[in-house]
Amino acid sequence: MTSPLTTPAAPAPEGRWTPRLWGTLLVLCAAMFLDALDVSMVGVALPSIGSDLDLSTSTLQWIVSGYILGYGGLLLLGGRTADLLGRRQVFLVALGVFALASLLGGLVDSGPLLIASRFIKGLSAAFTAPAGLSIITTTFAEGPLRNRALSIYTTCAATGFSMGLVLSGLLTEASWRLTMLLPAPIALIALVAGLKLLPRSEREKDHNGYDVPGAVLGTASMLLLVFTVVQAPEAGWGSARTLLSFLAVAVLLTVFVLVERRSAGPLIRLGVLRSGTQVRAQLGALAFFGSYVGFQFLTTLYMQSLLGWSALHTALAFLPAGALVAISSTKVGSIVDRFGTQRLIAAGFALMVVGYALFLRIDLDPVYAAAILPSMLLIGAACALVFPSLNIQATNGVEDHEQGMVSGLLNTSVQVGGAIFLAVVTAVVTANSPSTATPQAVLDSYRPGFVVTAGIAAVGLLITLTGLRPRRTRQPSIVVARSTVEEAQPDRVPVRD
């Protein structure tokens, strides 16, 4: 199937990228950079926000959770909307809304309005993320060109996250409002550049109408799932409220699956999940981001609450991991070409497990170079290998008209994994909270949480290893479509001798 994008976006002969193609990629990278930047900056600013606006701890939580709720709950809808209404159009409109919400967040003087602006930003990101990823996968031909583009694209997330930590430490010293306002001008510049550079795309011509019931059920189930997980630590995992909410999620998802199986134009074509490669990519995304978010949460508490480090000091401690990802960005694509996604994901998860395990050596008077830096470098190397490889694996062998759907599904796995496993780690630490809060006792209560993050990464490794079983003959995976049987491309690119 040919891409619905116009000729100017096509790669130059012999694999060289034209200036316009570079410009397209940079605009898309800017949106991904902003998503990660926004997530990391707000955490450091929360104490100042609470003091200035006189907000309680539970209200402050919703400044973070509101973004996660909008982002994780609407990704499936965002991905399919990009396929049906045009990727360029959806991306640009959502980016414009993101800029306006950033401006609103920096100017409000009310907690509820700030939370509303965060929800709107998360909603906007739920449309820009799958639209941007599907523009890349339909613009760059599958293989070395796409692998290189995706490695650069996903690196921008790690770079944005790392820079956000440092910038938030600096900007919060002046005013927390600057952390909210900073994304606005960057988003506007990317929007203007996108209007000029992004290739025009068509709406899907052969779709069988809009799956309104599927959209409502899918969005409602994801919103309720994220909301339930975020609130579970506060309400209690065994409380009637939490259990009833999970039951409602199960009912909604069951009805959603039944609707999708009968729909002529489903929000998610369930046939794509019959591919073992696709399932491993989605489960890998859950484990990868879930383990990292839990680790970062506990490490931040350890550094600031127990060691007394400043926000900037803490940000600089994380910086080597992000810097390693940024430096390796141009190399990961060629490594994927050589070894394939499955081996790199397995290697990355192995590095994560070792990095998390080494971090268990921490004490109340750590030597950074010996106790913390090795873990940061191992985790940075793992992120450099795993994140781009997951994106490549999930989108390889998928038809152009379903790239938005698969991109939305992958991003949903990332966000839901982060929300679920962060809540699990928080619950484990809370359950081990000491009656006498001495520094050593608090540190001991953190250790089971670190063990859980290592366990989550180990599960991701085991899932990935199931795709490395030796096979005598390479068999293409079969994906069952609505009325035909389509052959999906192999789960990895050929290995050069």
TrEMBL record:
Chief localization: membrane
CDD domains: MFS_MMR_MDR_like
Keyword line: Antibiotic resistance, Cell membrane, Membrane, Transmembrane, Transmembrane helix, Transport
SUPFAM superfamilies found in the cross-reference section: MFS general substrate transporter (SSF103473)
Cellular localization per UniProt: Cell membrane
Membrane-protein topology: Multi-pass membrane protein
Record-linked InterPro entries: MFS, MFS_dom, MFS_trans_sf, Sugar_transporter_CS
Pfam family, any one: MFS_1
Example of a GO cellular component annotation carried by this entry: plasma membrane
Superkingdom of origin: Bacteria
Membrane-crossing residue ranges in chain numbering: 21-47, 59-78, 90-108, 120-140, 152-172, 178-198, 210-230, 242-260, 281-303, 309-332, 344-362, 368-387, 408-429, 449-468
Gene Ontology BP annotations: response to antibiotic
Recorded GO MF terms: transmembrane transporter activity
Gene3D superfamilies named in the record: MFS general substrate transporter like domains, Multidrug resistance protein D
Protein name as catalogued: MFS transporter
PANTHER family membership: BLR6921 PROTEIN, MAJOR FACILITATOR SUPERFAMILY MULTIDRUG TRANSPORTER MFSC
Domain Major facilitator superfamily (MFS) profile: start-end pairs: 24-472
